[in-house]
């Protein structure tokens, strides 16, 4: 079991994200995972720095901890050739510590460049498949061209390639996206504790690691933690269909107006109770995931990191599917 720390680019500015990554390495986390957004989910989150710049700075400030995008959409806001180049460079400057997490994207971030965001999930997944083929092609070296249904590449070459290409973890929420992860990725990425996601991935031939974000909010008391999550992270309760379709933070504000504290408590581990955190994490372990990302929506990141070191690190690493909670 490997444990990661979520760097929320929507909730903190770039300097603070770099500081948290350094603290996460000191605390013993195996990797940091950073979202790649143009907008925050809600305006009151107040941030949205450029992920690739921040990860490059983190690579320079750390020595051991791995860096993961969670996740990048390489089809609309970015062309896959740019992501192939960015990922190759980050792998080099981090001495091989980078994992490229990719997905089919959200309208929230992709519509901003004016190219539209396909309404059909099928089309978005076709585009993701083509993007992954382009990235793999460029990582194989030499000048390359590609003519797809949605994406093209013309006479492009990446000159600075790492000795080994970065691992690619593909976000999935159902059978078709899990198949893409198995066929064109090296691992799986998910935000839901559904065993069928991992099962679809394995049935399609996927053998790599499974990354999953575990929702939590640390504070000295449960109410304060739940209120912090309600204020900034209630969008997480809307489900992937809503999260991928709404165009702007104001739409998420409206869509989550009726979310209550008790709703947060059903999904998030909140407050100082160690057993609740382990209970929520165990759902993901039992579903088959072996890379757990601690996604803290609480108001005190340093307090959470200290709590993780004292209370969670050892029992989380001992977790196994089906076994009793440590």
From TrEMBL:
One of its GO terms (molecular function) is oxidoreductase activity. Pfam families: Bac_luciferase (PF00296). The keyword Oxidoreductase applies. It comes from the Bacteria. InterPro entries: F420-G6PD/mer (IPR050564), F420_G6P_DH-rel (IPR019945), Luciferase-like_dom (IPR011251), Luciferase-like_sf (IPR036661). Keywords: Oxidoreductase. Residues 9-203 form the Luciferase-like domain. This is TIGR03557 family F420-dependent LLM class oxidoreductase. The keyword Oxidoreductase applies. Its EC number is 1.-.-.-. It comes from Streptomyces lancefieldiae.
């Amino acid at each position: 079991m490997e444990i990661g720390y979520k760097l929320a680019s929507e909730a903190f500015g770039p300097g603070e994200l770099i500081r948290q990554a350094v603290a996460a390495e000191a605390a013993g986390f195996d990797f940091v995972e950073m979202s790649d957004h143009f907008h925050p989910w809600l305006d009151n989150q107040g941030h949205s720095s450029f992920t690739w710049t921040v990860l490059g700075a983190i690579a320079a400030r750390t020595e051991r901890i791995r860096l993961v995008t969670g996740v990048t959409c390489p089809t609309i806001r970015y062309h896959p050739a740019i992501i192939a180049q960015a990922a190759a460079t980050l792998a080099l400057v981090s001495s091989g510590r980078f994992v490229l997490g990719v997905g089919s994207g959200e309208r929230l971030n992709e519509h901003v460049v004016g190219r539209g965001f396909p309404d059909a999930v099928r089309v978005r997944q076709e585009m993701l498949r083509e993007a992954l083929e382009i990235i793999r092609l460029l990582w194989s070296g030499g000048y390359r061209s590609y003519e797809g249904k949605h994406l093209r590449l013309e006479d492009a070459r990446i000159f600075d390639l790492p000795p080994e290409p970065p691992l690619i973890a593909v976000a999935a929420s159902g059978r078709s996206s899990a198949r893409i992860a198995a066929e064109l990725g090296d691992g799986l990425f998910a935000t839901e504790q559904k065993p069928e996601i991992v099962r679809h991935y394995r049935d399609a031939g996927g053998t790599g690691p499974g990354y999953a974000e575990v929702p939590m909010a640390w504070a000295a008391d449960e109410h304060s933690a739940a209120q912090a999550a309600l204020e900034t992270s209630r969008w997480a309760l809307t489900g992937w269909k809503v999260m991928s379709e709404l165009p702007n933070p104001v739409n998420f504000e409206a869509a989550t107006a009726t979310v209550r504290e008790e709703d947060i408590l059903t999904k998030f581990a909140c407050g100082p109770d160690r057993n609740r955190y382990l209970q929520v994490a165990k759902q993901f372990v039992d579903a088959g995931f072996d890379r757990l990302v601690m996604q803290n929506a609480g108001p005190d990141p340093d307090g959470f990191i200290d709590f993780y070191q004292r209370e969670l690190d050892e029992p989380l690493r001992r977790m196994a599917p089906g076994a009793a909670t440590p």
